[in-house]
Design a protein that fits this description.
12 helices; five-stranded antiparallel β-sheet; 13 strands; alpha/beta
């Protein structure tokens, strides 16, 4: 292929523009919203003299303190004192700041005082009994707000059908949310020997409205006296905060590395590299095509999890043609395959009818997946 001077000049200008955007993004502080659950007139749960809003705030501030020394990391708190903040305003803080992560910290409780352990939630539509109880508990703060019926458009945190009706506003962030949640849970288990109840998808309003990867951490059960004493202690809060902070730092480093790797073609150009850059742009255009993919397929992503599932599992609700990939310690499960977007849309409708309300279309090219908007 013959390359003239205009092609070379256009390519160099384009690369310099992309390079400036890359450095601008890299130099922008990685922003984390730390959300201490409950507060003010909303104490959260209380058992054995342990109060959720107090433990959540103290632990959240300790996480922030640990992150302050991290280079190029900005911390924003939804609250730093014992004040009541309407649930709808917590993710608004994150969205306004164009944050990279939203991390909400809470404590668990149940009437049975035996259960213990940590668990971290991401947005989803799991319908297991225990999870629905957690959702009703965390969403119930809505009832303390003025004009909650207008604000939440008739949403009733006491009704399971309202919970199931929640949908994720930014589905492409789900995998990143699970990635962070898995890091947090792994740290709790491997470094502190805390019992893990796993990473779970749950319809929680505070996560639903955030436009970035978001997690809600349940530090443990205040209803379990031994675990409550640990979480209420300065030592326990310091230990839990350290594991959360370390997980966030690890996620940030991987995020920045991925950002740089995605722009690995941004460098000083010579003649052979001009052609290489043009070919890369063409491939990206094909991957995002709204018609057919070349050398790739469309699939329907059902969910992502840190736990491997058998493809004949009842978790797939009778759907056949299940496949999966393992990326960043997450198993991504897919239904069907199609060569055109129209066929993929029909498959996605089938998945949703089978109960996968959060399913979405992805493209798979050369073993890599990307969400189709």
């Amino acid at each position: 292929m013959k390359i003239n001077n205009k092609d070379i000049l256009f390519s160099i200008v384009s690369m310099l523009f992309v390079c400036s955007l890359t450095w601008s993004q890299a130099n922008k502080a990685f922003t984390v919203i730390l959300d201490a659950g409950h507060g003010g007139k909303d104490p959260g749960n209380s058992y054995h003299g342990f109060v959720e809003k107090e433990i959540a705030l103290k632990t959240t501030l300790k996480v922030g303190k640990l992150l302050e020394s991290e280079k190029d990391l900005k911390i924003i708190y939804t609250r730093t004192t014992d004040v009541f903040i309407e649930l709808v305003n917590r993710p608004k803080v994150a969205n306004k700041a164009n944050a990279n992560l939203f991390v909400s910290i809470h404590c668990n409780s149940v009437a049975n005082q035996t259960p213990s352990g940590t668990e971290t939630f991401v947005m989803g539509l799991s319908r297991s009994g225990m999870n629905l109880e957690v959702a009703k508990s965390e969403n119930s703060v809505i009832l303390l707000e003025d004009n909650y019926k207008e604000t939440y458009q008739g949403f009733d945190p006491k009704k399971p059908e309202s919970l199931i009706g929640l949908t994720m506003m930014q589905e492409e962030n789900l995998n990143s949310s699970i990635d962070l949640a898995t890091k947090i849970q792994d740290n709790f288990t491997h470094n502190l020997d805390r019992k893990s109840r796993g990473v779970k998808q749950q319809p929680l309003w505070v996560l639903d409205a955030a436009y970035m990867p978001s997690v809600l951490i349940e530090l443990g059960f205040l209803s379990n006296k031994e675990e409550g004493e640990f979480l209420n202690s300065d030592e326990g809060q310091n230990k839990m905060a350290r594991q959360i902070a370390d997980a966030i730092i690890k996620y940030k480093k991987e995020y920045l590395n991925e950002a740089y790797n995605n722009n690995e073609n941004v460098k000083y150009l010579n003649m052979p590299e001009v052609k290489e850059v043009k070919e890369t742009v063409t491939v990206k255009a094909e991957e995002n095509s709204t018609t057919d993919l070349k050398n790739g397929l469309y699939k329907i992503q059902l969910f992502a999890t840190s736990r491997k599932r058998d493809i004949t599992s009842s978790d797939f609700k009778g759907l056949k043609s299940i496949s999966f990939t393992l990326e960043n310690n997450l198993y991504k499960y897919f239904y069907g395959s199609a060569v055109s977007l129209e066929e993929a849309k029909k498959l996605n409708e089938v998945a949703k009818k089978h109960g996968f309300a959060d399913s979405f279309i992805v493209s798979t090219v050369n073993g890599k997946t990307a969400a189709i908007k």
